[in-house]
Amino acid sequence: MIDIHSHVIPMVDDGSKNFMVTERMLEEASKAGFKEIFATPHYFDEKSIKREDMLVHFNELKKLATSYGINLLLGNEVFVSHDLPSLVKDKVVSCMNDSRYLLFELPRNNDINYLQDVLFELSSMDIVPILAHPERYRFVIENPESLIELSNYGLLFQGNSGSILGDYGDTVRKTAITLLKMNIYQFWGSDAHSQDRYEAFNLSKKYVDKFAGEGVFEILTETNPAKVRDNLEVDIDIHKTKKSLFFWRK
Ligand SMILES: [Fe+2]
Fold this sequence. Notes:
- By secondary structure, this protein is an alpha/beta fold.
- The chain has a single domain, classed as TIM Barrel (Alpha-Beta Barrel).
- The chain is 44% helix and 14% strand.
- The protein is built from 12 helices and 9 strands.
- A 6-stranded parallel beta sheet has the order 3-5-6-7-8-9.
- Helix 3 links the parallel strand 5 and strand 6.
- The longest helix is centred in the N-terminal third of the chain and has 17 residues.
- The C terminus is likely disordered.
- The chain binds fe (ii) ion.
- The site of fe (ii) ion has 5 residues, from loops.
């Protein structure tokens, strides 16, 4: 498996607190069956560590990860802002393994009115944004179908294993079930900040199988992340419900 979302680099964000925690994470990830991990530290604003400096941390950790049988790849989880396109253009943040794919997140509870402008600009730069854990955002919890409109902008979606296991509460878990049934996700990642999410990762498989279908787990944790790594096109196959078809006609 390939983990598309992990805060495994120590002391660069709110993820791994130190090298000991990182070693535990690598050990548990390896036990769970991960052969590759995208290190995706948060980038919030100008106070966050920029790509150039992050590369130093990343290269140091890459050697350690190899000793656990894990190939480490660099990305970021970038908090949305007006500046997102220029942060990509100026290489302040890292696309996933230097591909066209960019992992990003939104504010949990606030709507932002410029999202479509940002998505349009990214698409004009041939950047494909991957929205991290859509099941955790208020606007998605209130209206899961809204993701279908966003997918029209070429947006891809990554679910968190912890969401289906109840780590973020029952509402998020139920939303993740709805999104699995809609086949919204192209990726299923750990969003690990410590070893816990790797210890529990495989417990999420039965729910992905149950709600999205047999074989989908492998597509979300292996096939599609490999396409991101290799900068290949990822297929989208969202199930459009009757409600969502109506939603389109509005
Ligand atoms: Fe994250």
